[in-house]
Amino acid sequence: MSAQTKHQAINITKKLVEFQTFVVGQ
């Protein structure tokens, strides 16, 4: 896995966590 791919995966995971937190917070 390249560093860029890993970085993208981390960003996607962060966005999913933020989205889930936002939805739960509603």
> What is the 3D form?
rod-shaped
Radius of gyration: 11 Å
Return the domain count. Answer: 1
Taking pLDDT < 50 over at least 5 consecutive residues as the criterion, the unreliable ranges are: none
Content-based structural category: mainly alpha
Helix content: over 70%
Find the count of extended strands (DSSP E, 2+ residues).
0
Distance between the termini: 36 Å
Number of helices: 1
The major pleated sheet works out as: none
Beta percentage is under 5%
Order of helices and strands: H
Query: What is the average per-residue confidence, as pLDDT, rounded to a whole number?
Result: 94
3D architecture notes:
- The structure is a single chain.
- With 26 residues, the protein is mostly helical.
- The chain has one domain.
- Helices cover 88% and strands 0% of the residues.
- The chain is built from 1 helix and no strands.
- It has one helix at residues 3-25.
- The model has no long low-confidence stretch (mean pLDDT 94).
Give a short overview.
The chain is mainly alpha-helical and 26 residues long.
Give the helices and strands, then pairings:
Blueprint: H1 3-25
Supply the key terms.
single chain, 26 residues, mainly alpha, 0% strand
